[in-house]
Design brief:
This protein is of the alpha+beta class. Helix content is about 40%, strand content about 15%. The protein folds into 3 domains: about 190 residues, Immunoglobulin-like; about 180 residues, Four Helix Bundle (Hemerythrin (Met), subunit A) (Up-down Bundle); about 45 residues, no CATH class. It has 10 helices and 16 strands. Strand 4 and strand 5 form a beta hairpin. Helix 3 runs antiparallel to helix 4, helix 3 runs parallel beside helix 8 and helix 6 packs antiparallel against helix 8. The C terminus is likely disordered.
């Protein structure tokens, strides 16, 4: 009686043994401003990598298995004009040299059609490949450490050993294969970033939750890493140097030169002694920030302009020292208070400050692209805009003192009411009797031009 009752259960268990086994796939995914990566470890012990380029123009994308470019095997993929994409095995070399082509890699990647995704921003490109998993390494550590790179220039060829131009941005990411694979994460709700393709908007992917740790893909409350700290130091120091200290020196020269003789000392200390080390240190942080992410130098407008701005500032310092030295040595004629070098110095200084305004604005717009964080708060752009109004208004208002300045220079009056006598001129009032006594009325002329002539009798002068 017992056997017939157990027979259906035994048959059911036997049938289950012949059903295909279903197990959860393992994998991880994550995004930043430039690229999304989805990696899935299948039952056939092969890993499928799907790359989505987000930042047009998409020249090429790369993944490498290592912690840095040097000595790392990598796979580079790029789209072709016919709708296909090419896959090339490369090996990273030091000093940012183009990775060399590997004809026979240890682990061969093969191009496959990208999987379906509910999230496919307009202007983005998806490419996929799979390769044999390194099960030994994953058994020791289920987290796969990768580097990524994004290039803006398409090779324009299907040849696998074709030349690759330098990447525009690069970083690293960690894929955790202990997690259950999930589809590519959906975009944020209510947030958009510009795709750069005809003004279309592309919703950014999430950067929290179960997504992979992609370098520069962090939440707004995540602590800054070394790369981001370098960018912040670079921006803060140069913004303070070029948009606070240099304008302060210019305004001091414009406003106080008719009131005190100490204006030049303050102008020199601020524009050279204080601003020079701040600007030099801040500028050096720029190349260090690019190198920390293994990015390429002098590709963007901000980087190219940043190459020329400090030399212009150094030239301005030299010009100011040259003008001061000639004046101290008495090489500037007193009847030429504004030689061409002085006018060039003033105009050149205003040009540098205007150039710096443009440079700071372009740097603000690069923050999210360089770090993968959210764009800077609106107050940063509002402060920049307000400063572009305040400084010109303050300088233009100071031009109202030009008549006073020209009068003092014409009458050779020192600012602040002090007596001014040109001792190095042959017609100095101290050396010319006619400059002291009026020829017709025996008037004694006070050297301070702001006072009325004082008269007394010649007989009184003789008694004295």
């Amino acid at each position: 009686m017992l056997l017939p009752s157990l027979l259906p259960a035994i048959i059911s268990l036997l049938c289950l043994q012949y059903l295909p086994k279903v197990s959860a796939l393992k994998g991880d995914s994550g995004c930043n401003t430039f690229i999304c990566v989805n990696a899935t470890l299948g039952e056939n012990n092969r890993i499928t990598y799907q790359l989505t380029g987000l930042y047009p123009p998409i020249g090429w994308l790369a993944l490498g298995w290592g912690g840095k470019m040097e000595g790392t095997p990598m796979v580079v993929v790029w789209p072709n004009d016919d709708g296909t994409f090419s896959l090339s095995h490369r090996y990273g070399r030091p000093n940012h040299v183009e990775p060399v082509f590997i004809p026979t890699p240890l682990r061969v990647a093969r191009a496959i059609p990208p999987g379906a995704s509910s999230w496919h921003p307009e202007g983005s490109i998806r490419m996929a490949f799979d390769m044999r998993a390194n099960l030994t390494a994953l058994a020791d550590d289920p987290v796969e450490h990768l580097i990524w790179a994004y290039g803006m220039t398409n090779p324009g060829s299907k040849l696998l050993n074709t030349e690759l131009l330098a990447h525009y941005q690069a970083g690293f990411l960690n894929i955790d294969f202990s997690k259950e694979a999930v589809p590519m994460p959906p975009p944020f709700d209510g947030q958009q970033t510009t795709s750069g393709n005809g003004g279309n908007s592309v919703p950014p992917p999430p950067n929290a939750g179960n997504s992979a740790t992609v370098h520069s893909t962090v939440g707004p409350t995540t602590a800054f890493g070394g790369h981001e700290k370098l960018i912040v130091a670079h921006g803060v120091l140069l913004s303070f140097g070029f948009l606070v200290l240099l304008p302060a020196g210019s305004l001091i020269a414009r406003w106080s030169r008719t009131f005190t003789v100490k204006w030049f000392k303050a102008h020199s200390i601020i524009n050279m002694s204080i601003a020079l080390p701040i600007i030099v240190i801040g500028w050096l942080f720029g190349p260090l920030a690019v190198a920390s992410s293994e990015g390429s130098h002098f590709l963007s407008t901000h980087q190219i302009c940043g190459l020329f701005l400090p030399p212009l500032y150094f030239l301005q310092i030299w010009l100011g020292r040259y003008i001061h030295r000639r004046k101290a040595e008495g090489l500037v004629p007193k009847d030429v208070p504004h030689p061409p070098s002085n006018l060039l110095h003033a105009g050149f200084g205003l040009l540098i400050i205007g150039f710096a305004f443009f440079q700071v604005r372009s740097g603000l717009e690069l923050w999210d692209k360089a770090t993968g964080r959210d764009p800077l708060d609106d107050w940063c752009h509002d402060l920049w805009l307000a400063w572009t109004v305040v400084l010109p208004v303050a300088y233009i208002a100071g031009l109202s003192l030009l008549p006073r300045q020209f009068y003092q220079e014409r009458m050779q009056v020192m600012p602040g009411g002090s007596f001014y006598v040109a001792l190095d001129r042959a017609d100095s009032p101290l050396l010319s009797e006619a400059g002291i006594y009026g020829e017709s009325h025996a008037q004694f002329t006070n050297s301070r031009a702001t006072m009325d002539p004082v008269t007394f009798r010649a007989s009184e002068a003789q008694n004295q």
